[in-house]
Amino acid sequence: MSHAPHPLGTPVIRREGREKVTGTARYAAELPPAGTLYAWPVPATVPHGRITAVRTADALALPGVHTVLTHENAPRLKEPDDPILDVLQNDRVPHRGWPVALVVAESLEAARAGADAVRVEYDRLPHDVLLTEDHPGLHVPDAANGGYPAVRERGDFDRAYAAAPVQVDTTYTLSALHNHPMEPHTSAAEWTDGHLTVHDSSQGATTVRDSLAAAFGLEPERVTVLSAHVGGGFGSKGTPRPQVVLATMAARHTGHPVALAMPRAQMAAVVGHRAPTVQRVRLGAGPDGVITALAHEIITQTSTIKEFVEQAAVPARVMYTSPHSRTVHRVTALDVPSPSWMRAPGEASGMYALESAMDELAAALGIDPVELRLRNDPAHEPDSDRPFSSRNLAACLREGAARFGWHDRDPRPAARREGPLLTGTGVASATYPVLISASGATAHASPDGSYLVQVNATDIGTGARTVLAQVAAAALATPVDNVRIDIGDSDLPDAPLAGGSSGTASWGWAVHKAADILARRLRDHSGPLPVEGLTVSTDTARETAEEPPYARHAFGAHFAEVTVDTRTGEARVRRMLGVFAAGHILNSRTARSQFIGGMTMGIGMALTEGSTMDPVYGDFTERDLASYHVPACADVPDIEAHWIDEDDPHLNPMGSKGIGEIGIVGAAAAIGNAVAHATGARPRILPLTPDRLLPLLP
Q1: Sign of the C-alpha dihedral, residues 470, 476, 479, 483?
Q2: For residue 2, pLDDT beyond 90
Q3: What is the number of alpha carbons within 13 Å of residue 289 lying toward its C-beta?
Q4: Which residues pair with 419 in a beta bridge?
Q5: Fewer CB within 10 Å, N- or C-terminus of the chain?
């Protein structure tokens, strides 16, 4: 008897790939039923104030315009679970770009023309939109994102730092960053006999369903949210955004299905962003390079609508030997759009500062930057003193150094010149926590021998359908092609969103459990299956509620080679290598895509991406893909991702850690460290654009 090869770890081709490349995959805006109307938001043009009048007559007179919703006639909401969803409910303008009206028309063109014809009058109030290190509103919040304590102190940092023979005290500044997925935030809503159905570009249909039910005072059973295909999110679609509430309002008000795709230029103000940070890092060490004192102190901003605090100091609690440590977050509320999740929130920004400071410490000590990290690799998590379930940072650093040819480099700064080009190399570590949430799943066996697995997972381009089929096939001991996967529908078993690198671990655990129970029942079943087949429904609420005795994290190492043009100040990545330790890799094909996708975002973070706040108008000046520069293929000439396959029994039945975000963590620091090695100068403000580099060059 022959057996199919074990499906976990193999490079199974993603199931929806053909649909996507042939254009047959349908996204939220591409499924309009007959009679659909189209909506276009009207954004506030003042950064702070009150609406005194909304003039809609000219808009309503245009051909095709159906209605204009304002705070005076829009359906009333119950209290939404997120204040950013409380739109068109009052005359307050908390920031420029806040939706103040919504035009609904028979065509997209008519809706856009109608929005241009709406006239809004304001009582403009003074505004405050700039984050400064001495801002009077700075305070320590109750907690940072994820529930992490805002302040953690261990030992006596001040005494240990003062006594350290070698000290680094440096500050790094990061501008705001925007997610800018290819598919804008889009929703299409329809009410039928009191039941709400929404096609939404979302990272979690269950979450959107629950939020809409709360906002509109409905039982969750009366709401269905569908997110079959999602064209990118990077965190910005992790929780509902205003467009889904606006589309639902308009559908209720008009009695028609309504589709709303956020205009690209409006997204910067309403769908979240990575908040700017100013980060001070202090490292004290002995001549041997062992860190005796570590402090990482963050200031950042939030909006006046809600408090969102980038947890950028948290990685410093995990990474290195630090018997005396201080990590602090402070935040101030400004008249700006609400920041939110962006790929690897906290870790991406915090590890840029920490890993840059580690490079500065290596230079001050005259120790190789890889060796410095190895000397400070702890056996237990410094913050909790729990043992790591697995920690292969050292292996990633060593293998990466060998693959990259690190030890062949000339360690002297500004020593390698090729005509007008200065060339340098840099290294940085990466980490991301293992996060797992409870999920439900159903597994069904049909009489024809095929299987169907249902779970409300979301595939945001990661290959979730494919990997979940592999998980189920492994538990059922059947070929992958024998398993169908049904996802992206809130009527399916509840599941957490695709975020925090937790999707596969959370959904996969539930899928594995359901498939495993089904396999055992099939073994115990005699005779043919009944016509209706055999079904198992289960969840992992009990398993995921247990507090693990281990500190669970993924780790990695980035290596980068860059050139800096002394004539123009342009920095370019010549080659980049990442080596990661993220448990058992379930699909080598899709995993590699995830790693290099994160690394590419790190290139953008380091060199091209930045959102500038206009102090007069109170909005971000880079509001489209012409001014917000996402890396193109020409910016990524040679990028490699490898991994160390870990055997970690303390994670989940698949032995996997999340991989969606660790690729971006540390990537920008490796590039910044390479720029410093190339030029002999240390830039401390991202992105490293020519105007910032030219003054530092010889």
Answers
A1: negative
A2: no
A3: 21
A4: none
A5: N
Secondary structure of 256-297 as H, E, C letters: CCEEEECCHHHHHHHCCCECCEEEEEEEEECCCCCEEEEEEE
281-315 in b/e form (b: 16+ CB < 10 A) is bbbbbeeebebbbbbbbbbbbbbbbebbbbbbbbb
Tell me which of 307, 399, 561, 661 is the catalytic residue.
Answer: 661
Within 13 Å, how many C-alpha atoms sit on residue 284's CB side?
A: 18
Mean pLDDT in the chain? Answer: 96
CA angle 317, 321, 325 (to 5 degrees): 50
DSSP helix/strand/coil, 463: coil
Measured over all CA atoms, what is the biggest interatomic distance in the chain, rounded to whole angstroms? 82
- In angstroms and rounded to an integer, the radius of gyration of the C-alpha atoms of the chain is 26
CA distance 517 to 382: 39
Residue 497 has pLDDT above 70, yes or no: yes
Q: Tell me: pLDDT of 626 over 80.
A: yes
Terminal CA-CA length for the chain: 71
Residues 6 or more apart whose CB falls under 8 angstroms from that of 433 comprise 318, 552, 553, 554
DSSP characters for 549-573?
SSB-EEEEEEEEEEEEETTT--EEE
CB count in 10 Å sphere of residue 554: 29
Q: What is the pLDDT of residues 531-579, one digit of tens each?
A: 999 999 999 999 999 889 999 999 999 999 999 999 999 999 999 999 9
Helix (H) or strand (E) holding 218: none
661 is catalytic: yes
* pLDDT at residue 234 in the model: 95
**What pLDDT, on a 0 to 100 scale, did the predictor assign at position 3?**
47
| Bridge partners of residue 443, in order along the sequence | 453, 536
Q: Which of 429, 421, 407 is nearest to 556 (CA)?
A: 429
- Residue 119 carries which DSSP code? E
* Each residue's pLDDT tens digit, 656-696: 999 999 999 999 999 999 999 999 999 999 999 999 999 99
What does the pLDDT look like over 289-322, one tens digit per residue?
999 999 999 999 999 999 999 999 999 999 999 9
> Which two structure tokens, joined as six digits, stand for 132?
């400064």
